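Bench notes, afternoon.
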Amino acid sequence: MESQTLVLYDHVLRCIAVAGTTAFFYDYALTLQSEIRFIWASSGGWLGKSVFYYTRYTPVIGLPMALIELFAPDLSTNMCRYFASDAAIQIGLGTRALSIITPLTGSFNGKCTLVGSPPDLSKIIAGSCLSFVPCEIIILVATIVHASQAKNLRSLEGGSAALPILTRLYHDGMAYFGFALVFRLCGSIVWLTAPDPLKPSADYCVYALTSVVTIRFSLRLRESVADSTEVPSELLTTVLKKSFVNPRESRMESSTPPCPCSRS
């Protein structure tokens, strides 16, 4: 491969990495107020908050570190192994990935690279992306079928407080798993078909965009939960009056005959 082509590929890779990181942090700034309102000040379960914080803040560390690795002129072997360990942790705390990648990582001409000969690394990474696809397809199809059945049964009509949450789960859930499916398929295709210098570009885009979609889905769902629990003040006053009325007075009012009205 010509040196001019390699320089072009390297330039494209850096532009994609910066664009993906910029998109993530721009969306982070836009959604920070919603996060403070619906996550920090909320009394939700610890499991949901833990998943949210993991999805929200691992890219805050991982994406800048990936940019440092990409733009740094010279990196030592220890730094390269540190970056490899961090990348493995980002992928779901993958112990298996850590045991495979770390021993093969080293410094070559001041750059991080694999100094060993792994068995077709591109197919391994593409396969890890495709391994999530069957589960996401099942969830997406089940969500669509369940939403269609609920619509046919008219379960989404009425004045229940849970309807905004259910509607949000259907609409945003289908969009979320649809985007996740497309991102993983695109990432695996890039790793299988793109030239070697451009293969890592899929990681920056998929990592940043998946995090953005996940955060948007979580915040919009929490917003629906918060909206459904807000009771108008007039309705609350009426409910309190009916709840604390004297039962004896209530029976007297119900037993009092209506006032006769004159007919014209």
